[in-house]
Amino acid sequence: MKIGLKYIKEEISEILANYFVSNHSYKIDKKELISSITETKDFKNGDFCIPLFLISKKININPANLAKLLEEFLNINHLNKNDTEKIKSESYSVFDYLEKIQANGPYLNFWIDKKTIFNNLLNNNQENIFHEENLKNYNVVIDYSSCNIAKPYGIGHIMSTAIGESIKRCYEYLGANVIGINYIGDWGTQFGKVLLAFQMWGEEDKLEKEGVYYLYELYVKFHNEEEKDPTLTDKAKSVFQKLEDKDPYYYQLWERFRNISLENFDKYYKLFKNTFTLIECESKYGKKNIEEVIRILELNQILKDSEGAKVVFLDDIYPEENIPPCIIKKSDGTTTYAIRDIAAVLDRWQRFHFDEALYVINIGQQLHIKQFKGVLKKLNFPFANNIFHVAFGTMTFSGQKMQTRKGTILFLQDIYNEVYNQALELTKEKNIAKDMEDTAKKLAVAAIVFSILKNQRIKDIDFDFSKVLSFEGDTAAYLQYTAVRIKSILNKSSIEPMHILSSIDILKEKILKEKSSLADYFYQKLLDIEDKSAKEVVDQILFELFKFDQIIIDVIKEKEPYLLSRYLLKLAMLFNQFYTKVKVLEGENIDIALKLAFIDKIEKTIEKGLFLLGIEVPASL
Does the global pTM surpass 0.85? Predict the structure, then answer.
């Protein structure tokens, strides 16, 4: 068993839950206790704490008095630690990782033992000794990206892709079996409009030359003409109906449009290093699948007629929310994407038996997801409550929101080219990289992805071209630069990387004879530094390194990659503080080796975190 912050929280919660039963006849859910544990706002008051307001009310004890009781109880059970013995032993208890437990008013505060963390980090060659894959045999389906054919890769879809890709990588990091599905939108009445538009106004040479951008131009033109001539709407529906019936002309043209679109999407999927497990299309679920869903709805007697359409009423599922019925078939006989989503999720359940199914879709689709999920609940499918809408807001540019039908949208190509050109100019101007083009690509991709992932996903984003490549502040470039800077320090050292660990082994032999530890030796060296705040910075860094897995767990729990983004920004800031206070490359070789090994752990953590966000670190900056 590897002891990380998650395990410590669980064990403390278990101990306290038993205490409340034994001493106060109060049964509290262990999960409730775990969720109440939070980080302290000031690290001087400990690393994490348990607020006792609610529990004290339940057992009728003053919260400050309860904190004192718990402090005494836990300290009696606190094991006396001997650093030398811990180095020799691979067996640790929870209390070996705790330095102090203390009441602070109505809070019970905990201090992680930083020396234990330090000794573990530098006594092990693993990338993260505290990492444990605790989601083994857990199946997750993530539906993300999901571009629509006949439109270039839009900025809304890069938001879905960035969020979905990061969540996918985080689940995989924790050992889950993840099926990431890029579910391409290639079916529906809107494609009847594109087909009709090409039939009416299409030019072969422009299609060959401009590809998907020309198809989008036709789509916008159709929308404008449709406002003048409403009969075009019914004509487009008729064309889509023929497409559903596999009319040879429309079907072949539709396949051609789809291939042109996928070629455009694939260029950016490769550039952004997306790792879809499967790329599937909405059209996969044709008449046979639709008929099967309708049969299920009819057998369960929930498919009803409403103004010529076939619908499922959801009043009983959402009695207080006034949710409109889910339309399954329109009055003109065409199907909706609700029924295709139902067909798709039934198919995915049969194939993957998922524990969770996530839909990374804009907040504007909230009603659709609720209706689709409501139908599944009404059918009593066991997985209905395991479907989650990972909603996100919109992206604006100088405050202007993009709208597809009006043709005012900025495509990913526009955004990427602008940022890439800025990055390339930056690398040339400052001569900051050997491979300028590759570095500019990584900076540009990172700038776009991080601008999405650095905030809560539900918040709207205003993309600022003038700030995204800054090497200061909350940007990807700042994190990339910090990682490259640490690598540069490691490379500049007179100690070859392969000799760092052997130097530490020599140091371990020396200090064990003195009945000390690596941490004692390291901290003593810190005390010799004129700036006494260096130790505080090291303590904070060690806690951040220790809690990396807990951050990923929180990302998964909240479906919020921004938690990882904020963590990395804090870790990078702490490293830069450390580097200004501690002369890493000065001192005896053994001392230098210890400092290099320490900052190497920081770099590896930053780089791993960036990878989980979908960001690469350039070779040089």
Answer: yes
